[in-house]
UniProtKB/TrEMBL annotation:
Keyword Transmembrane helix attributed: yes
Lineage, opening ranks: Eukaryota, Viridiplantae, Streptophyta, Embryophyta, Tracheophyta
Entry keyword set: Cell membrane, Cell wall, Glycoprotein, Leucine-rich repeat, Membrane, Receptor, Repeat, Secreted, Signal, Transmembrane, Transmembrane helix
Pfam family, one: LRR_14
Name the record gives this protein: Leucine-rich repeat receptor-like protein kinase
One cellular component term from this protein's GO annotations in UniProt: plasma membrane
Leader sequence residues: 1-25
UniProt similarity note: Belongs to the polygalacturonase-inhibiting protein family.
Domain Disease resistance R13L4/SHOC-2-like LRR: 103-233, 318-432
Example of a GO biological process term: plant organ development
PANTHER family: SOMATIC EMBRYOGENESIS RECEPTOR KINASE 1
Top-level lineage group: Eukaryota
Compartments it resides in: Cell membrane; Secreted, Cell wall
Species name: Quercus suber
Gene Ontology MF annotations: kinase activity
């Protein structure tokens, strides 16, 4: 190292006096014409060996890699400090195809960041990765890397960003990961990781984003995750995690996004979720959650997206949902929810999707829906709703899709429906509607799908429907 620094000062000096061609070429076997900068033989050798091993070298890119001075404008190489040699390696999205394994990481003692994302690198991650003790940023995402994570990765105590998503990495997530006390982002999604989430994640106190989605992880979500108070994002979607959602999750007061979509989580939704005052997105859909939706859901005042669909939830929709004044998307479909649709839902003035289909909801559609002025899509298919469509529906002038099919709704279709001039999909089939269809039902010419079968409609098919050129599919048979 001392020798290297000596060389460096010498050369910097020479360069500044335009004597560059004296440079230390005698010890190098490679071409040294026009060199500027210091020779870093080990680093140059490691890079050139790797280049030679690649299946596809992207000639245009790596053509700059000649000689023994990687700090001298080699593409993708940065030397922050000319005395320290290579500090950054960035060959992101460069069409490189070959084995990562052939890159000898032991040769880069001063490497701070490495970004080889979006290439066609395959094979395993070499154990020598553990020698990069100063590394803060590692990104091998979107390649074709396989094999398991080397335990030596636990030595990367300075690492802040570990980005490995979109590969074919397998095996379990090593416990050693807990040693990465400075890690801020951990992205391991879209790989073949299996086994359980190690308890040791709790040691990564700086962690703000954890994405383990789309793997084959099993076992529980460790309760200790509640100790990671800096977390803003947890993505565990599309795994096979089981057990309950730990109540400790409520301690994550900075959490912005919690996504456990498509796992096998069971038990009830803990009341403690209400403590996550910054939560913007809560996706618990497609799990085995049971019990009722806790009233505390209404305390998550920052929520914009709430999806609890496709579980085994029972009981009523809590009235407190009306307090989620920022909510934009509400999905509760395919559960066993009962009781009536709460009046308070009308307070959701920014909500544009409400999907309550495939539950056991009873009672009327509340007249308060008139206040949901952003609503585009309302779907209550397959419940036991009764009463007539409130005339206040006419206020929902943004509505494009209204699906009331398969309920016990009755009465006449209110003329105010004529005001819904943006409606493209209207499904009224399988109810107990009577009277005539509103004559102007397609006056705007927007309707594409319309169904009204299995009701007790009388009278003529509205002229506006016959002239409705936009209509692709219409079900009117047996309407009369
Ligand atoms: C690598 O380069 C790409 C494209 O120039 C850039 O977007 C990315 O942020 C760089 N990576 C790092 C770690 O600096
Ligand atoms: C090779 O690298 C150059 C420079 O980064 C890039 O523009 C080009 O798209 C790459 N070629 C392939 C085949 O990816
Ligand atoms: C990798 O580099 C280190 C340090 O430069 C060296 O000691 C080791 O022999 C190299 N390993 C291989 C397989 O070339
Ligand atoms: C990725 O690796 C697998 C084998 O692990 C191979 O079958 C596949 O062709 C590779 N894909 C690409 C894009 O190289
Ligand atoms: C982090 O890097 C510094 C040098 O930048 C080094 O002294 C220290 O040992 C490294 N820490 C760990 C835990 O490896
Ligand atoms: C990854 O998992 C997929 C789906 O199970 C499987 O087809 C593939 O062979 C696995 N690949 C590796 C490298 O384990
Ligand atoms: C958040 O991270 C900082 C350092 O990055 C750490 O000092 C602090 O203890 C962490 N907070 C919690 C609650 O773990
Ligand atoms: C989740 O529910 C599915 C469908 O009913 C069932 O097959 C599976 O065994 C359940 N898993 C757990 C962990 O409860
Ligand atoms: C909604 O919030 C108000 C206070 O902001 C509170 O008084 C009320 O109880 C909440 N409603 C429900 C149903 O939780
Ligand atoms: C309706 O929900 C139940 C669970 O409550 C589910 O098993 C079923 O597949 C759903 N049906 C449809 C058509 O989505
Ligand atoms: C609904 O529309 C009627 C008639 O235009 C209007 O008087 C009423 O204020 C509207 N309601 C809301 C909540 O905007
Ligand atoms: C709806 O249409 C009726 C007449 O069809 C009209 O009187 C009413 O003001 C319109 N607006 C609303 C919001 O209902």
């Amino acid at each position: 190292m001392a020798l290297r620094i000596l060389f460096c000062s010498l050369v910097v000096l020479m360069v500044s006096f335009h004597f560059a061609n004296f440079a230390l070429s005698t010890t190098s076997s490679v071409d040294t014409t026009a060199e500027v900068g210091t020779a870093f033989y080990e680093e140059a050798e490691a890079l050139l060996n790797w280049k030679a091993s690649l299946d596809n070298q992207n000639k245009s890119l790596l053509s700059s890699w000649v000689g023994d001075r990687p700090c001298n404008n080699w593409d993708g190489i940065t030397c922050d400090d000319l005395e320290l040699g290579v500090t950054r390696l960035n060959l992101s999205n460069s069409g490189l195809k070959g084995m990562l394994y052939n890159l000898n990481f032991s040769s880069f003692p001063n490497l701070l960041t490495i970004d080889l994302s979006t290439n066609l690198l395959y094979g395993t991650i070499p154990d020598s990765i553990g020698d990069l003790s100063k590394l803060t940023h590692l990104d091998f995402s979107s390649n074709n890397l396989s094999g398991s994570l080397p335990l030596e990765m636990g030595n990367l105590g300075n690492l802040s960003y570990l980005i490995l998503q979109n590969n074919k990495l397998s095996g379990s997530i090593p416990r050693e990961i807990g040693k990465l006390g400075n890690l801020i982002l951990l992205y391991l999604s879209n790989n073949n990781f299996s086994g359980s989430i190690p308890q040791e994640v709790e040691m990564m106190r700086s962690l703000t984003e954890l994405d383990l989605g789309n793997n084959f992880l099993t076992g529980p979500i460790p309760a200790s995750i509640g100790n990671l108070g800096n977390l803003t994002k947890i993505i565990l979607q599309y795994n096979s995690l089981s057990g309950s959602l730990p109540q400790e999750i409520g301690k994550l007061g900075n959490l912005f996004s919690l996504n456990v979509w498509s796992n096998e989580l069971s038990g009830s939704i803990p009341r403690e979720i209400g403590m996550m005052g910054k939560l913007d997105l809560l996706f618990l859909l497609s799990n085995n959650f049971s019990g009722s939706i806790p009233q505390e859901v209404g305390m998550m005042r920052s929520l914009t997206q709430l999806d609890l669909s496709n579980n085994f939830l029972t009981g009523a929709i809590p009235t407190s949902i009306g307090n989620l004044s920022k909510l934009r998307q509400l999905y509760l479909y395919s559960n066993s929810l009962s009781g009536s649709i709460p009046e308070e839902l009308g307070s959701l003035k920014y909500v544009f999707v409400v999907q309550l289909l495939n539950n056991s909801l009873t009672g009327p559609i509340p007249a308060s829906i008139e206040k949901m002025s952003s609503l585009l899509d309302l779907n209550v298919y397959g419940n036991k709703l009764s009463g007539s469509i409130p005339s206040t529906i006419g206020n929902l002038t943004m509505l494009t899709s209204l699906i009331l099919m398969m309920n016990e709704l009755s009465g006449c279709v209110p003329v105010e429906m004529n005001n819904l001039t943006r409606l493209t999909n209207l499904q009224l089939s399988y109810n107990n509607f009577v009277g005539q269809l509103p004559p102007q039902i397609c006056q705007s010419g927007m309707l594409v799908l319309f169904g009204a079968v299995n009701n007790h409609f009388i009278g003529p098919i509205p002229k506006s429907l016959k002239n409705c050129s936009s209509l692709l599919r219409v079900g009117l048979m047996e309407t009369i």
